[in-house]
Write the structure tokens for this entry.
Amino acid sequence: MVARDPALARVPGLPKIGSFVPAWAGLEQCQKDPQMPSAPTPRSTPRHISVVGVANNTASTLFGIYDVLAYVERRGLSSSGAAPFHVELVGEAKGPLALASGVTVEVQRAIDTIDASDIVIVPSVHFEPGWTKGRYPQVIEWIGRMHEGGATLCSACQGLFLLAETGLFDGRDSTVHYNAAEIFAATYPAVPIHPERPLMISGAREELLSSGASVAWHDLALHLVARYAGAAAAQDVARAFALQWHHEGFSPYVVFSGKSDHGDAEIGSAQKWLSTHFSVANPVEEMVKRSKLAERTFKRRFVSATGLAPIAYVQRLRIEDAKERLERSDAPVDEISWRVGYEDPAFFRRLFRRTTGLAPAAYRKRFRIPDFARPRSRKSG
């Protein structure tokens, strides 16, 4: 059995195995508890970080992760002042590599020349329409060997599609971009995913890390800095790059789209009717009446087809409509509550927060286009 990484014990508040506890919790606790060390014990040599480059990579996550961690290396941001990391862009072959967007990067080292690496990071990958397994067998085999040697494996956004090919994430709680969650679940049914979460940490040594949608690589990078260089270094990096911890997760960003490819024509008809009548009083009763099915039969088939109970489905449609109204209008929250089907504004507020993670007013502030970014009307004359 591989021993637990001693650095983990040095950074208080880090997530437990298979759990989601935001990485910033460790940083806050470091500042509040003077008895707890704020940085891990420095090593005599920096930890080697391999940022894996493949042709499917998106440039934004690759460059972002590399720049942030290389900044920590250059600045020697650790309690000892020594560089905590040595970061390299690695790939199947040394030299130029064209990424998914057409941008070319320079791979610094070929993976067949690397016998050991402490941290392996797979940036997000782009694919249309689905992920094709087996495209990078040499990379998969090398990642497996690095893990056997004790490496921490990390994915950013859709990078989990590549890492999951190793089989090491089977049965391990993970996260991926919410827009790719359905494809991922179909491709890797053995990997439990939580796309609403920005960062998941799993594995016997807490060595399997995955970050969620798009800029959740901020959470991953800051977590790695906190874990191996200390809380103060992570805070310095957050300020330098204006990186954000995604405290509320990604529930506010997820757009609900009911499952419709289930093949149940009766339930499909009910869904179509509900899409324009969700705000009526007692919509579930109305659907049952229209279906001509027994109530218990209708509800059982609805759950089987959509994965949600009818009332839960109604609530998701109502909240989705409320989100659009908050984004695009100045209507008071109480009025929006009434328009989407709730006479009790207090209940609506509780449901909205439970579904999105934000209060209606906070949601409006987050997602509405600010005044300075709106097109200015031309004055006549």
